[in-house]
């Protein structure tokens, strides 16, 4: 028992801090003034950083403060670029501290630093984005009889927080340990709008947390039955090939349970404090918040707020059932860590200036945000190659299938998607190139060969399908003419 507790000591400490953050939520929500809430939230955040990190707390605190100074020092035109390169530059030094004669920080401190990076860079892009949008709106005012199509009216408000507000946003305890990422706008709305006072926080929190004991139990059981280190042993290499091939399924299963537990508790921190609650008519999206009628929602009276229906989709990180059941890897990526996916899309993909390189820029930033280990590269950067093949088969066979055929094809695609994720997860967990090479060599690097074969065969089948299309179209025209003549 003692060895078990020692092995998972850091996990239990982190779990205890997350549960504390959930428990303090109702009290935090009931604080009387906005200033009290902001300062208490920031102090709690700093205390959590110090408890988790000890002397290493200097890194997330210093990087956050210096990042804020960089934003306020730079002009609004370039503050997002300055913040991006400064924060990722600091992240580079932080993770390679041993190369500079400094001690490396713990994995838990690394998680906090990752969240700090998202917040500081994200708010800089919000500031710049609102400035660009308002400038464009002024130009459009001078154009007569021209409709301006806007999907959302959020950026028509100027976003320009002062140093103190940026400090509170960066270090507020909500979401600081594990996420989720949320925008400065969501943070500001929490203090200014009445939603947190009107939503059923207890009901949402209980509903969110009800599966956490199962996730934790499954993680502890699976990690003890199929430990990660066993995959590197000679005993594992002497097992049957099918066993070696399927072992990553157990590793990915335990990894998912750990992520589900952490992300679900992180969401519960938000729901307990009423953070991220918005009326459902805003069609709220993870990370973003309301996508329609935002300014109208801000004008909602307290009386209307008491009778409206709410959700916490703005702070939803994981769609657990979606992660387990979706058919394609493309869809799986959309429901995994959705708030961070949103950050990557808004900060990197949509703002990167070279269109052909957008996806590569997004993947590269995602890799270096996770870390500099080879395992992150193998796991994340190889997803598009599988998706290329998957898209072909999805379009050719699954998209228009119905009934039993669709179910059978769906199961096959689900199995292949799950197997691909498990294979990639092995690299993500093993991290270093030497450890990855030991496992991949034990299975002869077979899955990369399968990917390549899938892609080549799929391209050939697609070409045959495209070449036969004129014949099918002529046949359909002839059948229609026969019907008309009859």
UniProtKB/TrEMBL annotation:
Organism: Mythimna separata
Family membership: Belongs to the membrane-bound acyltransferase family.
Keywords: Acyltransferase, Membrane, Transferase, Transmembrane, Transmembrane helix
Keyword Transmembrane found: yes
Keyword Transmembrane belongs to the record: yes
GO annotation (BP), single: phosphatidylinositol biosynthetic process
Lineage of the organism: Eukaryota, Metazoa, Ecdysozoa, Arthropoda, Hexapoda
GO molecular function: lysophospholipid acyltransferase activity
Subcellular localization: Membrane
Pathway: Lipid metabolism; phospholipid metabolism; Phospholipid metabolism
Name of this protein: Lysophospholipid acyltransferase 7
Topological type in the membrane: Multi-pass membrane protein
Residues that span the membrane, as ranges: 12-28, 40-71, 78-96, 116-134, 361-387, 446-464
Gene Ontology cellular-component annotations: membrane; mitochondria-associated endoplasmic reticulum membrane contact site
A Pfam family the protein falls into: MBOAT
Signal sequence extent: none
């Amino acid at each position: 028992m003692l060895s078990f507790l020692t092995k998972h000591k850091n996990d239990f400490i982190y779990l205890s801090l997350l549960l504390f953050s959930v428990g303090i939520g109702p009290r935090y929500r009931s604080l009387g003034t906005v200033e009290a809430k902001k300062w208490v939230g920031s102090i709690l955040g700093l205390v959590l950083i110090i408890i988790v990190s000890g002397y290493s707390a200097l890194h997330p605190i210093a990087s956050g403060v210096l990042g804020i100074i960089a934003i306020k020092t730079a002009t609004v035109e370039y503050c997002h670029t300055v913040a991006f390169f400064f924060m990722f530059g600091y992240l580079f030094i932080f993770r390679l501290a041993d190369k500079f004669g400094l001690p490396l920080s713990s994995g838990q401190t690394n998680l906090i630093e990752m969240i700090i990076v998202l917040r500081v860079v994200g708010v800089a892009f919000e500031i710049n984005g609102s400035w660009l949008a308002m400038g464009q709106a002024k130009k459009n005012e001078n154009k007569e009889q021209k409709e301006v199509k806007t999907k959302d009216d959020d950026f028509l408000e100027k976003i320009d927080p002062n140093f103190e507000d940026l400090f509170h946003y960066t270090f507020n305890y909500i979401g600081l340990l594990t996420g989720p990422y949320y925008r400065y706008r969501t943070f500001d709305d929490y203090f200014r709008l009445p939603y947190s006072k009107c939503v059923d926080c207890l009901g949402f929190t209980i509903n969110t947390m009800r599966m956490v004991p199962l996730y934790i139990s499954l993680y502890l059981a699976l990690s003890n039955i199929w430990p990660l280190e066993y995959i590197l042993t000679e005993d594992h290499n002497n097992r049957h090939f099918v066993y070696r091939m399927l072992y990553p399924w157990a590793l990915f299963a335990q990894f998912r349970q750990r992520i589900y537990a952490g992300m679900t508790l992180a969401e519960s921190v938000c729901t307990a404090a009423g953070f991220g609650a918005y009326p459902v008519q805003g069609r709220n999206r993870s990370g973003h918040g309301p996508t329609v009628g935002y300014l109208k929602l801000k004008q909602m009276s307290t009386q209307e707020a008491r009778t409206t229906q709410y959700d916490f989709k703005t702070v939803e990180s994981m769609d657990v059932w979606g992660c387990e059941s979706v058919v394609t890897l493309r869809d799986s990526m959309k429901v995994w860590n959705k708030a961070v996916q949103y950050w990557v899309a808004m900060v990197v993909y949509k703002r990167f200036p070279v269109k052909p390189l957008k996806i590569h820029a997004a993947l590269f930033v995602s890799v270096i945000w996770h870390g500099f280990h080879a395992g992150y590269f193998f796991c994340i950067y190889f997803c598009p190659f599988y998706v290329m093949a998957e898209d072909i088969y999805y379009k050719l066979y699954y998209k228009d299938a119905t009934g039993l055929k669709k179910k059978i094809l769906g199961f096959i695609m689900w199995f292949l998607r799950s197997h691909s994720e498990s294979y990639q997860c092995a690299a993500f967990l093993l991290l270093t190139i030497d450890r990855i090479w030991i496992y991949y060599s034990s299975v002869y690097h077979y899955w990369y060969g399968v990917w390549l074969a899938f892609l080549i065969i799929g391209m050939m089948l697609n070409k045959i399908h495209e070449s036969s299309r004129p014949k099918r179209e002529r046949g359909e025209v002839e059948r229609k003419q026969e019907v008309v003549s009859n």
